[in-house]
Amino acid sequence: MKADRKRLKAEKADLVNQMQQLYATLESREEQLRDFIRNYEQHRKSLCVIAVLSLFFLSRDEASGFCYINDVVLGILRLREKYERVLYVDVDLHHGDGVEDAFSFTSKVMTVSLHKFSPGFFPGTGDVSDTGLGKGRWYAVNVPLQDGIQDDKYYQVFQSVLTEVHAAFNPEAVVLQLGADTMAGDPMCSFNMTPVGVGKCLQYVLQWELPALILGGGE
Predict the structure, then answer these.
(1) pLDDT tens, 153-191?
(2) Which one Pfam family would you cite for this protein (predicted)?
(3) Which residues are within 8 A (CB) of 92 and not within 5 positions of it... i.e. 6 or more apart?
(4) For position 46, what pLDDT does the model report?
(5) Could you say which DSSP state residue 154 is in?
(6) Cα 60 to the center of its chain, rounded Å
């Protein structure tokens, strides 16, 4: 019994420590986002880069894909306090299902996800026919891609889709999630992108000269 109590006490202390670290991380990201918004209000142009893993799989009622807090959704909600229309662009091997689900019923946030889509591949969502629900109908854009895609073809698709999205939605701010798992040599062994190709996608979005929140990603 004494050994069990000691073990439970140690597990409780470890859990408390993990939660404290989590809250500290969230507070840091919250402050970064607040600084980003304040800076844009002062200078009318701003770029915020948070180069850490984005936890975008999480849905409202369950953890998913190693994600237990969807910081991307929290960031978009904060931006929505200032900006009427926010565009989320997901450049990641996996479908950004958690973010899409969070805003699937609104026309104020448009989500665009370019991802691998094949039977048995996580999370199994993101078909081209998934376009949003209710008032959010047509405000979710999914672009399923096949294995082996390289920089030139990816950028061609990216530019074509984002040109139409920008013209139709006219966003006031943009959140861009850049997944490292699109890279050639990644353990997932699917896409064959390079930093140059991903950089071209980033440059294309930045040319809009909108307030932009840039996030890291990739499992």
Answers:
(1) 999 999 999 999 999 999 999 999 988 888 888 777 789
(2) Hist_deacetyl
(3) 56, 113, 114, 115, 177, 178, 179, 181, 182, 217, 218
(4) 55
(5) H
(6) 15
Measured at the alpha carbon of residue 93, what is the angle toward residues 205 and 54, in degrees to the nearest 5? 70
Count of beta carbons in the 10 Å neighbourhood of residue 28: 12
Nearest to 182 by CA among 157, 219, 214, 156: 219
User: Which candidate, 127, 37, 17, places its Cα nearest to that of 78?
Assistant: 37
Spell out the domain ranges in the chain: 1-45, 46-215
Superfamily grouping for domain 46-215? Histone deacetylase domain (3.40.800.20)
Q: Please check whether residue 110 is in contact with residue 141, taking contact to mean a CB–CB distance below 8 angstroms.
A: yes
Cβ atoms of 91 and 178 within 8 Å: the answer is yes
